[in-house]
Structure prediction request, 490 residues.
Amino acid sequence: MKKTPLYEKHIQLKGKIIDFGGWGLPVEYSGIIPEHEAVRTKAGIFDVSHMGEITVQGEDSEKYLQMLLTNDISLLNNNQIAYTTMCYPHGGVVDDLLVYKYTNTDYLLVVNASNTEKDYRWMKENIFGDTEVLNVSENYAQVALQGPLSQTILQKLTKKDLNEIEFYYFCDNVNIGNIGALVSRTGYTGEDGFELYFAYDKAEEMWELILETGKEEGLIPAGLGARDTLRFEAALPLYGHELDENITPLEAGLGFCVKLNKENFIGKEALANQKSEGLNRKIIGFEMIDRGIPRNNYEVYAEGRKIGYVTTGSFSPTLKKNIGLALIDSAYSKEGTEIEVLIRNKNLKAKVIKKPFYSKKYKKMP
Amino acid sequence: MKLLQELKYVESHEWVRVEENKAYVGITDYAQDQLGDIVYVEVPEVGTVVEAGDQFIVLESVKAASDVYAPVSGIVVEVNEELEDNPALINESAFDAWIVAIDMSMSNEIDSLLSAEEYEELCE
Prediction:
């Protein structure tokens, strides 16, 4: 198993280490539920150093990314971030990622850990013009500070006025204590918060500094388990579940990051066709009526036939209900429609409900 | 490791408390710690016939579903209804939170279960 620079810290904090796509990372420290609640009400800190970082530089960077990605990168200001998918010609998803724009000749892409190698190969295969693509994942440590008290905590450690960093913007070379970091107001929990990128060898120092500073506010370390339940309640997709090479961003409900009006991009034709013909299937949210917890890949039925499968399911720590996301036949996607989930050979009743299950508390600037 | 001397254990992390011909079954403190927060307990109906080794209970933590196996053969005669609304009792006090009671059909099966010491060795 690969280790992040914070591995020893996780062991010290009695984190339960699991193999997550080849990375040894903590699934929980004190428990998924208390960690989840801390992030919803106070703050939690996550080690996300496993994430992949790929730089794109050169005169043709913008043109190249416009071809590669479904979102419209030309609309970004300097220091702004876009969430986007990267698709195959048939519309399936290579990965979902964040694009950080320094300038129109200098970008940083943050990709899913387990897809880093695949993404990097895909990006190299499709390269053109004056563009240089580099996998710099090993240079970076990354932590996510998430929750309503994140800014209060982080502000104690820096002279930079964090109010100046708007949602989906970033600032580079910010001193957190004595450590230089790229600070972005982003996250994967549905709460306000920051993601910090900094030198690999500063990871332990940064981790201890933030944890110590946030103690008064109730900051605790949080693991992959809470990260998953938090993103799930906010209906943020997870690659390998709501997205994969056979699910298009439109089916996943990510139409907002597929800009069919931009010139050309890989997957455009397939996605435009899918949009004009209408979706045969889509990701919906549902709530169990019968007792039972839906899990990934459980089959979904309606009117006696299979209509799809669960992509993520769990007990929701915030709502205290058993809920799920499922990819199903669009004919059954209307809110209130009754469906059934096959749980241990029993068809248990559920109904389609609105997603996200938890409305996001992002900090929107006036 | 937290263990009670008077209980019997199974290597699949169940404990058994024998009261006359009834075997009360729960999971060990070690097991609840491994599972994490338990949020749902699925039990067999009273009257279900089980054989030692049958998967007969499902415990769901936030993360995943885990099977619990019958330590002895018999008929399920009681289920702990408190767990329906408060499955976290298993996390709070694993050795008090019995899940079901089995009226044993072969009470000598108890003899082949593990003692506290034997179970502890197994977990190390």
About this structure: Helices of chain B lie at 29-35, 82-85, 89-92, 116-123. The CA atoms of residues 18 and 61 of chain B lie 27 Å apart. The mean pLDDT of chain B is 96. Chain B has one domain: 8-112.
